[in-house]
């Protein structure tokens, strides 16, 4: 059985998908980009600020499922320019305990929705 997870504290989906789906004890999140959920505007000032907005959006999706970053077992990071990896990674690292950090892949892609620079999705387990 699956349960749809939604929160108005993170950007609403802009297509036929949900913010997250809980199946048993496992949460599968959709990718988040740097939309500010309060005004619907993209936050693209710097790659660090953009990444922080993505992570804050993800924090709210996890919270809606009564989870935190400690529950995350896998992340996928999609970036438009691998030259931004270290800047993205420095912000991302602030949200995890390095000793218990999740598995992860980081992939450079040709384009992302709305031509943003970073998109992150996660899998978490209660």
From TrEMBL:
CDD domains: YjgF_YER057c_UK114_family. GO terms for cellular component: cytosol. GO terms for molecular function: deaminase activity. Pfam families: Ribonuc_L-PSP. Belongs to the RutC family. This is 2-iminobutanoate/2-iminopropanoate deaminase. It comes from Tenacibaculum piscium.
């Amino acid at each position: 059985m699956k349960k749809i997870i939604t929160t108005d504290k993170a950007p609403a989906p802009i297509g036929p998908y949900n913010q997250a789906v809980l199946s048993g004890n496992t949460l599968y999140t959709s990718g988040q980009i740097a939309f500010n959920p309060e005004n619907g505007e993209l936050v693209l000032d710097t790659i660090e600020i953009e990444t922080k907005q993505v992570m804050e959006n993800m924090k709210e999706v996890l919270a809606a499922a009564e989870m935190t970053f400690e529950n995350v077992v896998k992340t996928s990071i999609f970036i438009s320019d691998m030259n931004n990896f270290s800047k993205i990674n420095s912000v991302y690292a602030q949200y995890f305990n390095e000793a218990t950090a999740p598995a992860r892949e980081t992939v450079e892609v040709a384009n992302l929705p709305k031509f943003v620079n970073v998109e992150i999705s996660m899998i978490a387990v209660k």
